[in-house]
Amino acid sequence: MNISAVRKILLRSLLLLPVVAVTALWAANPDELATLRKSDIAVDTEPQRMPEVENKDVKRTRNYPMQPPTIPHKIDNYTVNLNANKCLSCHDRTLTEQSQAPMVSVTHFMNRDGNFLAQVSPRRYFCNQCHVTQVDAKPLVDNDFQDVDSLLTKPE
After folding, report:
1. What is the pTM of this model?
2. Is 15 within the bounds of a domain?
3. Does the residue 145 lie in any domain?
4. Domain for residue 27, yes or no?
């Protein structure tokens, strides 16, 4: 058996491993398999309505240093692709005086070597990679997250 044949066998077995693990879990405890669906998989249920995006233009407190700020307004139909970035029509360095929107962070003008550029760096051009809108929705799972300030002031 040559090396390429061994690699193919190893790759196939690695690809099948998650399928085997999930199947084994379901076979062991089919009634205990937790889902967010809360109904049998064979039953068609009415999907929940999508919550409305908040449109308050209010800055939110950040929970940790360097957390990307959330987008406090709707961005439906905003184009962000290689040819256009609707976000920069308000948040670009040269347009913030007219729009009164906060300027893009200075970190977005740095290339990977730490040099400052005149325009937003291509690696920071796709805003939705880090920045997201918010909705008023009930959390799907419990969350006991504590922000960094409460952790720093917590007595030991």
Report:
1. 0.64
2. yes
3. no
4. yes
